[in-house]
Amino acid sequence: xxxxxxxxxxxxxxxxxRIIYATTEAELIGAVRECDETGTPxxxxxxxxxVLVGDQGFAGTVVVVQTQGNSYEIxxxxxxxxxxxxxxxxxxFVAFTLEKNLANLESLSGIPGTIGAAPxxxxxxxxxxxxxxxxxxxxxxxxxxxxxxxxxxxxxxEYRSSLFKNEPERYVIVDVTFxxxxxxxxxxxxxxxxxxxxxxxxxxxxxxxxxxxxVLEIRRNKGMLYSxxxxxxxxxxxxxxxxxxxxxxxxxxxxxxxxxxxxxRVKLSAAWLMQNAGITKGMSHGGAKISDxxxxxxTNSGHATAQDLIELARIAQEKVKAHFxxxxxxxxxxxxxxx
Length: 339
Prior knowledge:
Strand content: 25-35%
Order of helices and strands: EHEEEEEHEHEEEEHEHHEEHEEHEEEHE
Distance between the termini: 27 Å
Oligomer: single chain
Number of helices: 9
Number of strands: 20
Shape: globular
């Protein structure tokens, strides 16, 4: 039996009862339909970069999405429309768009995973989210047993969430169509950390390739670029940044980072909350460790179990709750594991 630790970036997880590698849309939908018709538990995996599977593994069928290919039209005025298969590597796609002189994805460079996972989590970084540039999503509806095309407005995009995340057992992403701007300058740089690293003011635009390289450099320095050779494996940020009321935000110390949201609430920094609640870089539990580079990355130093990571995450949650009354929510999807 294949261990799911071999298919996830955290390198933990027990055995899968059965694994299917779907390389075409027909294979992907066929495997899902077969599981539904036979009542077999189903787990769909892309790059395995945002998932923590329990040590007992998965008693069902794991479908690994490896579909490839894209089609695109690029116009000098309107930009580019690119329809991309769910199994395509995310960062390779970002690099491809820059090669085609297309902008708007540069700040999302270096995020691990696949195209199909991007709309589910509404991945984002440095003030921009993928939902801003998605035109439509094609997904197999397991309830209606048909492929449906969702417009961007139907996807329910929110901070690190979407319709697909809210109904995880219903939809399987088949492909995603992006609408990108033609040009060599990036979207406005919204985060001071990134602006300072680039030597520009917040709100400035820089060449897209320059911004991509700087984002990759920052992520590398934070231990947020996945490498199978680096035995400090992680799933990137383990927790989402909490969004709270103005009253709760006002109760925090003045140096706590705050980001106003359109609905009047305030986004906080999960990393700041953890650090100021006593969670330090290098803190460990069993084989699990808080990254030496960034407190939000919980890592497997080479011999961690899934339970080690769960216990370390629980310690972080409890400390933040005790100090600030705020509960951190995992960004990582938990399979046969609970906090």
